[in-house]
Design goal:
Largest interface: A-B, 72 and 60 residues
Shape of chain A: globular
Mean pLDDT of chain A: 77
Number of domains of chain A: 2
CATH class of the largest domain in chain B: Alpha Beta
Distance between the termini of chain B: 71 Å
Helix content of chain A: 25-40%
Number of domains of chain B: 4
Largest sheet of chain B: 6 strands, antiparallel
Strand order of the largest sheet of chain B: 14-19-18-17-16-15
Number of strands of chain B: 19
Structural class of chain B: alpha+beta
Distance between the termini of chain A: 42 Å
Radius of gyration of chain B: 34 Å
Shape of chain B: elongated
Largest sheet of chain A: 9 strands, mixed
Mean pLDDT of chain B: 84
CATH class of the largest domain in chain A: Alpha Beta
Radius of gyration of chain A: 22 Å
CATH architecture of the largest domain in chain A: 3-Layer(aba) Sandwich
Number of helices of chain A: 11
Strand order of the largest sheet of chain A: 8-6-9-10-5-11-14-15-16
Order of helices and strands of chain A: HEEEHEEHEHEHEHEHEEEEEEEHHHH
Oligomer: heterodimer
CATH superfamily of the largest domain in chain B: DNA polymerase, Y-family, little finger domain
Structural class of chain A: alpha/beta
CATH topology of the largest domain in chain A: Rossmann fold
Chain lengths: 344, 491
């Protein structure tokens, strides 16, 4: 399976190269749904899912989808996020900007795993950078492994300029991904504008993430819309067990607002900065979190409300300073904790 | 009539022909002039505006030669050496200049001579005269002493000893003249006669390469200008190729029919010579400047100059037309954005060695400049110990930390229990910290409140959002109460 996939990829790359020299468009059959080559999960696609996709030169990649790495989410999205497309990532309030940006960056980090060394362009209006803060390269490197040399920022005073920069950037193959951040529901960012962005992203074969802070869902040309809010983090895991009162890995609550499969879903994902991969949190609360009916638009994300009910009691501030006494491990674990120390 | 203030009196600084016909003169007091003719119209002089006008004219004169210098407040020097043949000879050029100025509504005196001094004298005292090489003496001899560009005091003392024309000064023995009237008189004389070289100082640096096109029919449309830029850039390319260089900085000069000159400059991040790309860059720039450029009656001269050039490395493209170097695409993209939105439109983060979060990263405008600022490590030098677990840093940082209201903390040095930020109340469920970051005392003044250390806390609120707060100052220690700030947001 793996060998054939690699061989197929080589053949496609060669075919693309030949088509480029000859100046003709390759036309080929693609099986996008449920049959991603990289994931070994649900490999067999239903025959009805086969579609003939005619794409531009650079877009004829054998793997058109970016698997998020969480099986349920990938299945709900039909194989993952489309790579050569516009994807909308919504936050319901401006204060969710950290979570929305964090989720987009973790997706970018997944892309950068495959496209080494290519830069990422982050475009925003002056308004959103003032309201939600400017991207901080040190934090991006620590949390998402994106080196400062790989980052480019573009700050546009007006929305028109930001859209222009994004359209110019979306058709560049020299960028790994383009992040466009817009606040609110401006008139100008309508179906036409998203269609233009999507068309350019599709022809260049590069993803464009449209971060919409404090925005209502609107008609969009993007095939996928995810609504992201922050979720309470679990405590840090130490050798002595979870450290009470500490704040562990970043966690997000993702609700699917629009996708090709049109399956509703809500997931709590945790980003692992060390492995640069997502884990799904399957706690007691999140087990049956998929709602029977899709979420009503305009109402607050129910996950955020449920997030307030914490399994871990709010710490007294004395616990923070002296966490060793607070996080006293049971005796059984203690021996295991001392074991490697002696060995070290 | 224009007046200006000299000393304590209003005096006439300039006047028109009708005022001259009334026997008014320059430097006459306004009170006297009014006494003679009570109904004269007097305008206050505006030297700034005069200067701007003269500079505008100097810009326009760029069409004849790149070497244009200002001469005092009312004159221009044009070094036309080697340029006259482009306009059909000296006489044709002078006529062209005079007629164009006349049609713009200026009354201009011009003189053309081998030396600046002689040209100056010819323009001011003979009017529209071309002086050939070796004729300077014949030109100057009958002229008054003012034609020698000497100080009024020197002129007055020369006149007091009976030397009233330049010819008389030339005939006089040199040594006593130098002894009595100083070296500047003879210097001016020698410069005017061509015994000494005199350099004029041009206003603008001369571009290493320039291509221009005179148009019979003025153009007004932006598309036409862009097409012209493409044509000029094609011509420029051969010159650049011969020199093995590419343009780093380009300027487009548009000479309007009525004398206004628009100058559009742009820089590139790497040397460039492809006409298509140059045209693209100017397309963006012109689109951005659409409101600022007034085509009026059209432009009749378009010039493209290379202001700065650098060595150009050729790269071989493969069969598909792709060059392996991806940086070129990014550089061109950044250039286009900068051409339209300004220098700071594309930023690149650069890490700096600093503990203060806002100083640890600098976002600088994108250039192809060296990618790493930190110097290479010296092998013998002791390195600072590396932390295995780097401190957590937010993914977004506010430009200016935003003050928050903290009603109470459980412990004096502990994190807040709740806080108010942007008029909303947040309840803190968990907190990590403090991480104390001391101020950089070598930068800030000692009494400065920002010089106190900060205690940073990582906070998670009831909805699971994570923030980075800090407390400036310590409780109880000093007279100033500590203040709380929101500095960043975590994922």
């Amino acid at each position: 399976m793996a060998i054939s996939a690699v061989a197929r990829e080589t053949v496609f790359a060669l075919r693309r190269q030949i088509a480029k020299i000859e100046g003709t468009l390759p036309e080929r059959l693609q099986a996008p749904a449920g049959a991603p080559l990289d994931t070994d999960g649900s490999a067999d696609a239903a025959p009805s899912d086969l579609t003939i996709v005619r794409r531009g030169l650079a877009a004829a990649l054998p793997d058109a989808f970016l698997p998020v790495g969480v099986e349920r989410l990938d299945a709900a999205l039909g194989g993952g996020l489309p790579k050569a497309a516009l994807s909308e990532i919504h936050g319901l309030e401006t204060r969710e900007a950290g979570a929305v940006a964090g989720f987009a960056l973790s997706l970018t980090s997944l892309i950068l795993k495959q496209a080494h060394g290519l830069p990422v362009l982050w475009i925003g209006t002056t308004e959103i950078f003032r309201e939600a803060g400017f991207p901080y390269a040190r934090g991006l490197q620590a949390s998402f492994g994106i080196a400062p040399e790989q980052l480019l920022f573009s700050e546009a005073p007006k929305l028109v300029d930001a859209l222009w920069v994004a359209e110019e950037a979306a058709r560049m193959t020299a960028l790994a991904a383009v992040i466009l951040e817009i606040r609110g529901n401006p008139q100008r960012l309508d179906l036409t504008a998203t269609r233009r962005l999507h068309a350019r992203a599709a022809s260049a074969g590069r993803p464009v993430f449209l971060l919409r802070q404090a925005a209502e869902p609107e008609p969009t040309a993007a095939p996928v819309r995810l609504i992201v809010s922050s979720a309470p983090a679990v405590p840090r895991v130490t050798v002595a067990g979870p450290l009470a009162g500490s704040i562990g890995r970043p966690a997000f609550t993702i609700a699917i607002g629009k996708s090709r499969t049109a399956l509703p879903g809500q997931f709590t994902l945790e980003w692992n900065p060390d492995e640069r991969a997502f884990d799904e949190r399957r706690g007691q609360r999140t087990e049956n979190s998929v709602p029977v009916v899709s979420l009503p638009r305009g109402r607050k994300d129910p996950a955020a409300a449920s997030g307030a009910v914490l399994a871990f009691p709010a710490p007294r501030s004395s616990d923070v300073g002296s966490s060793a006494t607070g996080g006293q491990p049971p005796p059984g674990q203690r021996a295991a904790h001392f074991g490697p120390r002696r060995a070290g | 009539m224009v007046s200006h203030r000299q000393g304590n009196a209003q005096r006439i600084s300039a006047l028109d022909e009708r005022a001259e016909a009334l026997h008014l003169k320059r430097d006459m007091g306004i009170a006297d002039a009014r006494a003679m003719h009570p109904c004269i119209d007097i305008v206050e002089a505006d030297p700034e505006a005069d200067r701007r006008l003269l500079e505008g004219l100097a810009d326009w004169c760029d069409r004849y030669t790149p070497l244009v210098a200002l001469d005092g407040v009312d004159g221009l020097f044009l070094d036309v050496t080697g340029c006259t043949h482009l306009f059909g000879g000296e006489r044709a050029m002078l006529d062209d200049i005079l007629s164009r100025f006349f049609h713009q509504g200026f009354d201009v005196r011009a003189g053309l001579a081998p030396t600046p001094g002689a040209a100056w004298a010819a323009a001011r005292f003979c009017g529209d005269r071309i002086v050939g090489s070796g004729e300077e003496e014949a030109l100057l001899a009958p002229l008054p002493l003012a034609a020698l560009r000497i100080a009024p005091e020197t002129r007055a003392s020369l006149e007091s000893v009976g030397l009233r024309t330049a010819g008389a000064v030339m005939a006089a023995p040199r040594a006593p003249l130098a002894r009595r009237f100083g070296a500047s008189l003879l210097l001016r004389l020698d410069q005017a006669l061509g015994h000494l070289d005199e350099a004029i100082s041009p206003r603008l640096p001369v571009a290493p390469l320039s291509v221009e096109r005179h148009l019979v029919e003025p153009v007004t449309l932006t598309e036409d200008i862009e097409r012209l830029v493409g044509l000029l850039a094609t011509t420029l390319k051969t010159d650049l190729e011969r020199r093995g260089e590419g343009a780093r900085s380009l300027a487009l000069l548009l000479f309007r029919v009525d004398g206004a000159v628009s100058r559009i400059a742009l820089g590139t991040s790497r040397p460039m010579r492809d006409p298509r790309l140059i045209q693209k860059l100017f397309h963006e720039r012109l689109a951005a400047l659409e409101q600022d450029i007034d085509a009026g009656y059209g432009f009749d001269l378009v010039r493209l100059s290379v202001l700065a050039a650098a060595a150009f490395d050729m790269a071989q493209a493969d069969l598909t037309g792709e060059v392996a170097d991806d940086g070129a695409d990014i550089a061109l993209f950044a250039d286009r954005i900068r051409a339209r939105l300004g220098e700071g439109a594309v930023l690149r983060p650069v890490a700096f060695e600093s503990h203060l979060p806002e100083r640890a990263v600098a976002n600088i405008p994108f250039t192809e400049a060296p990618r790493r600022i930190t110097p290479p490590r010296k092998p013998g030098k002791v390195q600072a110990p590396k932390t295995i677990f780097p401190p957590e840093r937010p993914i977004r940082l506010f430009r200016a930390p935003e003050p928050i209201e903290v009603p109470a903390t459980e412990m004096p040095e502990g994190p807040p229990r709740n806080f108010r930020w942007r008029r909303a109340l947040y309840r803190v469920t968990r907190a990590e910290g403090p991480e104390r970051i001391a101020a950089e005392w070598w930068r800030e003044a000692p009494g400065d409140p920002s010089a106190s250390s900060r205690d940073y806390f990582r906070i998670e609120d009831a909805d699971g959002r994570r923030y980075w707060l800090y407390r400036q100052g310590l409780y109880g220690g000093s007279q100033v109460a500590p203040r709380w700030f929101m500095h960043g947001v975590f994922a």
